[in-house]
Design brief:
The complex is a heterodimer of chains A (279) and B (400). By secondary structure, chain A is an alpha/beta fold. Chain A is built from 11 helices and 9 strands. In chain B, helix 2 (18-29) packs antiparallel against helix 3, helix 8 (178-189) packs across helix 10 (247-259) and helix 8 (178-189) runs parallel beside helix 15 (383-394). Classes of the chains: A alpha/beta (279), B alpha/beta (400). Chain A binds chain B through residues 1, 4, 17-18, 20-22, 24-26, 28-29, 31, 34, 36, 65, 78-79, 82-83, 85-86, 125-126, 165-167, 169-170, 173-174, 176-180, 182, and chain B through 15, 19-20, 23, 26-27, 30, 32-33, 38-39, 42-43, 45-47, 49-52, 55, 169-170, 173, 178-179, 181-182, 185-186, 189, 203, 205, 208-209, 212, 217-219, 259, 261-262.
């Protein structure tokens, strides 16, 4: 296994030792990597980083509530065939022309190793992961209409993200390498901010981080702001030319951090409480 | 060798087996752990743990197996933590008192901690010996001892804890419940029905081919409305009193129902013992909704699921809300209707309704359970009973 390249994160994507270990396990064992964690901790970005570091193509498959496992393999375009049968464009007897491969199918049939991202697998139907078990295990499937088999020449690197909206079936979990992305501690967060905003004024960064962690500490806030929101917020602050922030009523662009109306009220309560305490 | 470690994990109910063992062996053979215990920790965690709910167990097992730190059996720790969960106020200590508190070295503290764990059998607060809260013993939380062991929670007056006996970062993620929630979800999945509603926006391929063939090859497009989930469910739950022992079970059912995405609508209401003229939107019986208004809003195609133990004083069922457990009597005629009448009104309104009983269906006669059984088809709140209830709910249209 000497030809295997270790994943060490990229310039724009900082990792922890645990995350690197998990990615490398998935690479060596050729198993899917299941990534869970709070929204906004960079689950989807991880796939981009892995693809970049392997210099491989990234094939994303964004799962929706109506997505079926079959959609990932292939779609048989009956309508086009019917249309061609009537208006005589091309050879309708060749059913292969009307088979369109889905993301999984494209990942399997690619000539080089690709990175396949199955994003937010928990959005789909309860049985969705089970329907994919066999295909992910063997990395091959058969097209019923033509009898052709699509088999992976190079097993793709499969990354699966989940927001924990639904429990995933045990049989599915067993086949995956699992990683839970922790919320970054202040030190790592400082690094992440630096990577995204290299020219950011040091004092503004410190103030913004302080405010950010202060808001996260408020237990009444239901949707706590996460890394991506902090990055966005700092971007807005920089654009607007704000040079200092502190946690009070005048906090600018709060909408970038808090997304729920109740959370804004909760924060307002906290601030009002603080003022009463000081006076 | 790590095989023993796997058994350690299994003992803590982390599901690991041969598949994980082989995976781990391959990863180690590839040198992923970089010959360090730290590396091994990360690699093993990625391969052996499949859910954040087990990360805490993994940390415990790892600590015990590899660092030699003695961790008492989980069961004892859980009980201990429950004593410590709500600490009493810290005593104000004078300087002399603080000086008197013996300073111990770590070995000694750990040894005594274990000893104390074995001896202690009850909750203790404000003392100087047992594990409790607000005291000066070296063990417990929210207390004062410069070289003590902190057990759960935040440190008290001074963070002098030599070693936080449980630096367990993943504790909030453990949930010994979710396994069952999925089972319930799967049972509830059967409770769905699709209906074609709305505009014709989906191509009906079968019909199109058929129509085209009949039309001698001229294309004839046939469309139909898309299939949409069409199940509307009303969940009414009995809370408080005799239902308290089943609260966990009912909340599992509730969270499974809440997460079911294959329903068009889920309404949930609460009542205490029996339904009278009002239902409540919150568990604390706040935010009332008159039953008659609910019946006006909901058509008969809604599926009604009642959850309750159905055991109450006979007068609660047969008397009016005026002297029953019902809330707030009024002078309107509704207030004089007995609980049974309200239940029958609900039953008559909906095509399909079931009653789930967390106490199960016992062989012994019980006056009110039997009476309610006469009104609603009753099932035990077990996986089996739930399955039967679901098939009752989807069975045909109209009353059997």
């Amino acid at each position: 296994m000497s030809d295997f390249r270790r994943f060490r994160g990229t310039e724009r994507y900082l990792t922890s030792e645990a995350l690197e270990a998990a990615v490398n396990c998935a690479l060596v064992l050729e198993r899917p990597l299941l990534v869970k964690g709070e929204p906004g901790t960079g689950k989807t970005l991880l796939a981009e980083a892995v693809a970049q570091s392997l210099s491989a193509e990234l094939i994303p498959w964004h799962v929706k509530s109506t997505t079926r496992a079959q959609d990932g393999l292939y779609v048989y375009d009956t309508v086009q065939r019917l249309y061609d049968a009537r208006f005589g464009d091309g050879d309708v007897r060749d059913i292969r022309r009307y088979i369109k491969l889905g993301p999984l199918g494209r990942a399997f049939s690619a000539s080089t190793r690709v990175v396949l991202l199955i994003d937010e697998v928990d959005k789909a139907d309860l049985e969705f992961p089970n329907d994919l078990l066999h295909e992910l295990d063997r990395m091959r499937f058969r097209i019923t209409e033509t009898g052709d088999e699509v088999a992976a020449r190079e097993r793709p690197v499969v990354l699966i993200t989940s927001n924990n909206e639904k429990e995933l079936p045990d049989a599915f979990l067993r086949r995956c390498v699992f990683h839970f992305i922790d919320f970054p501690d202040a030190e790592l967060m400082r690094e992440i901010v630096r990577v995204h905003h290299p020219e950011l004024d040091r004092s503004l960064a410190d103030q913004a981080m302080q405010v950010f962690y202060e808001i996260r500490k408020n237990t009444r806030i239901r949707k706590r702001p996460s890394t991506s929101e902090l990055i966005d917020w700092i971007a807005v602050l920089r654009r607007a030319g704000v040079s200092e922030v502190k946690l009070d009523k005048t906090l600018p662009f709060l909408g970038a951090l808090l997304k729920k109306e109740q959370d804004l009220t909760a924060l307002a309560d906290q601030l009002a409480g603080g003022r009463r305490y000081r006076s | 060798m790590f095989v023993e470690f796997l058994y350690e994990l299994r003992a803590r109910k982390v599901p690991v087996g041969a598949q994980e063992a082989i995976g781990l062996a391959r990863a180690l053979a590839a040198g992923l752990h970089e010959s360090s215990l730290d590396g091994f920790y990360h690699v093993a965690r990625a391969l052996l743990v499949h859910s954040e709910a087990h990360l805490d167990d993994f940390d415990l097992a790892f600590a015990q197996h590899f660092r030699g730190v003695h961790v008492e059996a989980k069961a004892i720790a859980e009980e201990l933590l429950s004593w410590l969960r709500d600490p009493i106020k810290t005593r104000a200590l004078s300087e002399e008192e603080k000086a008197m508190i013996e300073e111990l070295d770590l070995e000694e503290v750990l040894r005594r901690f274990e000893e104390r764990l074995r001896e202690q059998r009850e909750r203790h607060d404000g003392g100087n010996r047992w594990i409790g809260t607000g005291g000066t013993s070296p063990f417990g939380r929210g207390g004062f001892n410069p070289s003590g062991i902190q057990v759960g929670g935040s440190a008290g007056g001074r963070s002098g804890a030599v070693q936080n006996a449980d630096a367990r970062r993943y504790r909030p993620y453990r949930s010994d419940l979710t396994l069952d929630v999925r089972q319930i979800e799967v049972a509830l999945r059967k409770l769905r029905a699709f209906a074609r509603e709305g505009g014709d926006r989906e191509l009906d391929i079968e019909a199109t081919i058929d129509a085209t063939a009949r039309n001698a090859g001229e294309i004839e497009i046939v469309t139909r409305p898309p299939r949409r989930p069409n199940t509307r469910v009303i969940l009414m739950m009995d809370v408080g009193g005799s239902m308290d022992p089943s609260a966990a079970l009912v909340s599992q059912l509730f969270s499974a129902a809440k997460r079911a995405t294959h329903w068009k609508e889920l309404r949930s209401y609460y009542f205490h013992n029996c339904v009278y003229e009002k239902l409540y939107r919150t568990e604390g019986l706040q935010d009332p909704v008159p039953v008659r208004e609910l019946l006006r809003e909901c058509g008969k195609q809604h599926k009604l699921v009642m959850v309750g133990d159905a055991s109450m004083a006979p007068y609660e069922l047969l008397g009016s809300s005026g002297y029953g457990g019902g809330a707030g009597s009024s002078s309107e005629p509704d207030a004089r209707l007995p609980g049974a009448a309200w239940l029958m009104m609900l039953r008559d309104h909906f095509d399909r309704a079931v009653w789930l009983n967390p106490d199960g269906i016992g062989p012994y006669p019980h006056p009110t359970v039997d009476a309610i059984k006469g009104i609603f088809p009753m099932f035990a709140l077990t996986l089996e009973g739930l399955g039967e209830a679901v098939s009752e709910l989807v069975r045909g249209r109209g009353r059997a």
